[in-house]
Amino acid sequence: MKSSGPAGILLVFITSERDMSDFIYMTDEGLQKIKEELDHLRIVERPKVSAHIAEARDKGDLSENAEYAAAKEAQGMLEMKIAKMEDLIARARVIDESKIGTSSVKILNKVKIRNRNTNTVMEYQLVPESEASLKLGKIAVGSPIAQGLIGRKVGEIVDIKVPSGVIAFEIMEISL
Question: What is the dihedral of CA 128, 133, 138, 140, to 10 degrees?
Answer without folding.
Answer: 40
